[in-house]
Specification:
By secondary structure, the chain is an all-alpha fold. Helix content is 82%, strand content 0%. It contains five helices and no strands. 16% of the residues are buried. Residues 4-11 and 25-30 have low confidence and may be disordered.
């Protein structure tokens, strides 16, 4: 149950991340997962070092995909401007952006599970509880 909830949460979070990459919004407060890792889990020094490495790697790889997605969005805009409809260039641009979104979602999932792997069992249990709460709490 906990693994399924984690997968669903991460997929939803990746979708939000991708949506924000396409339609940026003003910065928000730390996400529940970010706050959990950086403030609530009492990571030991070794875990903190390993987390920093994971976050640096994710930031570099994620930024590259975000830039690729922005480029694909520009190509989509150009195709819309030229075709003024749902033509072959628009379809190709949409397909290209969906490919990048999928790779970004997979990267995000890999990153979250790599972070979870750093945790001791009691920390992982808190992680899972946070995921379940995030999935079952109405954000309004």
């Amino acid at each position: 149950m906990g693994l399924v909830a984690t997968l669903v949460f991460v997929a939803a979070a990746a979708g939000v991340f991708i949506g924000r990459a396409m339609w940026p919004t003003p910065p928000r407060a730390d996400s529940a997962l970010h706050a959990l890792f950086h403030h609530d889990l009492n990571l030991d020094p070794s875990q903190r070092v390993r987390l920093e490495v994971l976050e640096r790697d994710f930031a570099v790889r994620g930024k590259a995909l975000e830039l690729e997605l922005r480029s694909d969005n520009a190509k989509l805009a150009e195709a819309i401007e030229v075709e003024h409809g749902y033509g072959p260039a628009v379809v190709a641009a949409v397909d290209a952006s969906h490919d990048v979104m999928g790779r970004l979602q997979k990267l995000t999932l890999e990153h979250v599970f790599a972070m979870r792997a750093l945790l001791r069992p009691e920390q992982a249990a808190r992680f899972d509880q946070t995921v379940v709460k995030a999935l079952t709490t109405d954000p309004r």
